[in-house]
Amino acid sequence: xxxxxxxxxxxxxxxxxxxxxxxxxxxxxxxxxxxxxxxxxxxxxxxxxxxxxxxxxxxxxxxxxxxxxxxxxxxxxxxxxxxxxxxxxxxxxxxxxxxxxxxxxxxxxxxxxxxxxxxxxxxxxxxxxxxxxxxxxxxxxxxxxxxxxxxxxxxxxxxxxxxxxxxxxxxxxxxxxxxxxxxxxxxxxxxxxxxxxxxxxxxxxxxxxxxxxxxxxxxxxxxxxxxxxxxxxxxxxxxxxxxx
Length: 244
Description:
about 35% helix, alpha/beta, about 240 residues, 2 domains, 3-stranded antiparallel sheet, 10 strands
């Protein structure tokens, strides 16, 4: 099993906190990363030339004498898609084991939060059957499915990301070592522009992280990743980054 009982208990507590703190958790929608004209009210900012006059808050003007516009967070569908890199490079230093655990934990939290979730494994030259779940009772089956996928094949992160360009708006987690010759940055930007909430879990062995420090940093900058969390494991590191 990828997730132990104590780990599942901690994930359940995290999911409970997420349900209580995220509007729309039960209704299949969550505040998304984009600011627009509809959805949950996010706050005010000062009016600047080019802003839509329809968004001016005239009540705020009456109170303050200054022009402010209302901003709203768009609703993102309550579904999670995990793109799981199982190419040959992930087998080194058992990075694929770490990646599977990250994927399983993310899916478990989604299911425990009342959302749907699916995993889309990828590796060049291989055809995987994606898995999809909608109930917390399916976490055990999900764990076995994610653990049972075989590893091996060429890099295919860019192609995997591009398959979601026509998908319904939702939350996307890419779990990969990002060692492809071609960076998936451009298609990730395209997903972000289409309203998806995109997160990247960058999985590297410690040996790779120390050897590639500068290059990895340049790649992260090119992909416009903002580091928000880092966890050191026995032989690998995982950087979870929100896509800006």
